[in-house]
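To: structure desk
From: M.T.
Subject: fold request, one chain
Message: Could you run this one when you get a chance? Sequence is below, nothing fancy, just the single chain.
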Amino acid sequence: MDNKRGQLTIFIIIAVIFIGAIILFFVFKEKIIIEEIPPALAPVYTSFLACLEEDVSTGIDFLGFQAGYIDVPEFEPGSLYMPFSNQLDFLGNPIPYWYYVSGNNIQKEQIPSKQEMEEQLAKFVEDKINLCRFDSYYDEGFEIMMGEPEATVSIEEENVKVSLNMNFEISKEEESAVVSNHDVIVNSKFGKLYGAAREIYNYEQQTLFLENYAVDTLRIYAPVDGVELSCSPKTWTADDIFGKLEEAIQSNTLALKVKGGSYSLKSKEDKYFIVDAPVDSELDVRFINSQNWPTVFDVSPSEGNILMASPVGNQPGLGIMGFCYVPYHFVYNLGYPVLIQIYYGDEIFQFPMAVVVKGNKPREALDVSAVDIELPELCRYKNTLIQVNTYDTRLNPIEADISYECFGTKCNIGRTYLTKPLEENFPQCVNGYIIASSEGFEDTKYLYSTVESGVADIILDNLYELEVNLKLDGKNYTGQAMINFVSDGSSRTVVYPEQNKINLTEGQYEIQTQIFRNSSLKIAETTKEQCVDVPQSGIGGIFGLTKEKCFDITIPEQIISNVLAGGGRENYYMLESELYNSNIIEINANSLPLPKTIEQLQDNYLLFEDNGLDINFK
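Reply: Done. Structure tokens follow.
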């Protein structure tokens, strides 16, 4: 009896071991690797590893070209006021900005971390590995099976390591093999390129070197501050200024080089374009800007497309000055993208940044971890639902960009469409303005309180383009003139004859025409005594005592080449029917005596006030 029990115990133990072995086989089946692949099957596995390495290299190229992203972030559009989206369109491909300003004026960053790039590359390999082609081997009778892939990636400075866990089964006739773990190492400087990109980005956020170059370019190629000796107004065209700035920005951006890269100084001027960023000397850096990329350009004060500075010294009562001068000061807001490329041989890593200048000064430096700043307090709390409908003067629906202004703060809201009004939440405000802007129409400010939900119907006036035909004493005039169309809340200026087109809407205008002629009016050099009170020296100065000190001011000789010699002003109400049915607005002005002294020049300004104009439409 004891022998039978002992035999039974042995059988039970053997059965348990056998069952356990079967369980362990299935549990660790994927871990069982045939270390040596039969020679007949080796070419198939070699092709598989080559395909895996190619997928890794392709993924690295995507990461480098798309600022560290394979799957780019969801598209975020810009706005009329800030046209940057969160992606730069480069050769038809979206490249995510590392720093940009959103459509509602929020500074944002989207910089991928090393871990995020490794995860995206691993997913890319997992998605692509099953697309490897083995058609020629299938034709030779091979059978190939692939399991579910699971990849891990490690990005180093000199290479990228990929470990793929996936059953890869090969068989032909009587031979077969299964390989589960596949490791490849791709020689790539991607990690070093990415590190250099982070260094340049941090250097820009700390020093704002791109913005400082932008300010220098602005002051060289655009009128910012200055004084000129002249008795006639100085005018500039915003489009011309912007065109010159675009060309200068593109050229100067391309000239930038990073210290340590492969460059050579040909002149002292070249040194100006060297950026002292901490980048390895074996890497090269390129900065790119294009005039075709979205750009922000705004200048004030301006009258439409015209920047104008008026002279001082030719007004009645200022003859004692003995000279005229034109002071000017313009404030610019400027924004444009710069694409930064770091490359080593054929490898490249690139990322774009928005360069922003506000009020002639660089934007404030952004902490590299900061996001969502500079949004006005009013715009953060939009909680009143308003429906906005926009129409032309014939009550046809039109598309328009909508913003809301309350006590000097403006918030971007959205856009109306031909088939759908705008229904959005507005910030609460009493007696704020809904502003509607649409191409071909006058911008309209509509007084509206947003303390309660409601509907706003806004009618925009059509803009009509007319050719300006100027006459002097009934004859066509082709010399220099300045024509102002001043209406309630707006002003438009034509610098004639360089400009001869004007966009007008129905309404009351004061039309002012100033005609200038060549002159050789000379104002002789004068010396005047100027006296001021200055603190006394010694004990008297301590107690605030002063004494008069006089000195001479010499005003140099001045030749006035352009003088007011005709023109006048006229109040005129323009009907929409006149604008709609006409192509030309004809302005007839009377001449004034050609002045020979500064006093006669001032007399002309008095006569100008009394002169009228004849206005005709054709």
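Reply (cont.): The chain has four domains: 29-73+110-187, 191-362, 378-459, 465-617. Let me know if you need anything else for the meeting.
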